[in-house]
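Figure caption, in words: inputs first, then the predicted bound structure.
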Amino acid sequence: MTARILVVDDLAANTKLLEVRLTAEYFEVIVANNGVDALQICRAGRCDIVLLDAMMPGIDGFEVCRRLKADRLTAHLPVIIITALDEARDRVRGLEAGADDFLTKPVDEMALLARVRSLTRLKVFMDELRSRAQASNKIGTLELLQLSADREALGGHILLVDDRPSSSERVAAALSEHHKIDTVAGITEAQHNLGAQDYDLVIVALSVRLFDPLRLCSQIRAMEKTRQTPILLIAETEDRARVLRGLEMGVNDYLMRPLDRNELRARVRTQLRRKYYTESLRESMQATIEMAVIDPLTGLNNRRYMESQLGSVLQKAETRRRPVSLMILDIDHFKRVNDTYGHGAGDDVLKGFAQRVRQVIRAVDLMCRLGGEEFVILMPDTDIDYAATIAERVRSSVEGSPFPVEGGRNLPITVSIGLADNSASAAPEEILKRADIALYRSKTNGRNQVTKAAA
Ligand SMILES: [Mg+2]
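Bound structure (magnesium ion present):
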């Protein structure tokens, strides 16, 4: 897992140092010595992650970060701001400028790699979403990926695992103003809570003596339910080796004692923000993919989906020498419903119609809304005579009882149906045309009936 990292610092000695460390870990490094160059490189799409010195002449790091986050082209780039150690307030300032993480100078190697790796993981996740979105050929991907984490990273539900009351009380006190904290000391209790609750973050103190805290971290990563839950370690200076092992097994971040209250809050906020962000991305991606193939009114698949499926279903049937039938359904005098009772009533009829028809067709039948009051049902492995009995079942069920619509009315509705199969041709447009002609005959012969295409 690698990434192209842009290192921005006005001092060549600093960029050199970071370049050497990152290159040793097989990251690709690009260097800029001022904010203007940095912005240009980012806009040209030449990097994946930005390491940004806070104090630079000209445009300082905070301003560069603000501009990156305000620009549609660069808003999705993860930014790590590097501040001097004595600028404790600036760490939080960096996050306020929209930075995704922060480091303090002199830059500790473990901290550098932990934060860069964590953002690389996020980048890999976003790239995957991007390619999946492209594969499903949908629109609005860019907008989606540029969604900022609108939700404030507050109100998190946090599990704190720490067996030293003096320490856990301090952590809880720093966080409880904005988050809900559950504190546990034993591993059984921790496991129980993780199974019973949904946590947004787990904080584990490496000083725990009753059990191996890294064992718990590895269990959290292995459990399906908590695989994605961020983990934050609290460590002593002499714990470095164990922190490294934790980071290798997927711990997201760590803090060193003595704990800085602001840093603790900021790191918790960063992890929560990232979690909410990836969650909302995943959800919107799912919704967008569904939207591309689903008719929002009826919940049925849409014309696009039907067109994508019809060809392959017919082809498969052709090679296996199996029958396929297809019916086109058109609600009779639907325009009258809209004209007389309004479009709200029309929508209610369409929804009720989809629901009722779905109840009388089989699970293997694929029902789609072609548009307006027109629907298609594709019936694999079904000859036209059996398809006709299903079509008749649909017709009589629609006629059977009126459809409730807004305003407490019940409207009697009927449907005309045309049927065709693949016996004459396996070409999608051909079978659709024949079903359409049959439907036309149902209409001209008085509606509310099923007509089979002429053989
Ligand atoms: Mg500087």
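The chain has three domains: 1-121, 147-286, 301-452.
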